[in-house]
Specification:
mainly alpha; about 80% helix; globular
Length: about 100
């Protein structure tokens, strides 16, 4: 079994997830945006720590599952899709904050 070839995508998605969490918390707490996911919105209202734990844990779980599945076109496509979506989300955050 060789080395996992998509680590760069895994790390990129993970870092974008953290950036999304921080920027969402900042934007929502300042009134610049609203969290559209009702569960995440609820967690943000209760305590942002729960929001961060849930958001980061869910993405870590998903990324772990993709890594465990291994290198194949499907997992690479899933990681590329996640990277594209998160890149767009970060772009929206930047647009809102500018």
């Amino acid at each position: 079994m060789g080395a996992y070839k998509n680590w760069h995508l895994v790390v990129y998605v993970f870092l974008l997830n953290i950036a999304d969490a921080v920027l969402t918390h900042y934007s929502v707490s300042r009134g610049f945006a609203k969290e559209l996911n009702p569960i995440m919105d609820f967690l943000l209202e209760i305590d942002p720590t729960y929001f961060y734990i849930c958001k980061i844990s869910l993405v870590i779980l998903g990324l772990t599952l993709l890594v465990r599945i291994g290198d194949n076109p499907g997992t690479r496509l899933a990681l590329l899709f996640c990277a594209l979506i998160y890149t767009c989300i970060i772009g929206l955050h930047v647009a809102i904050l500018l």
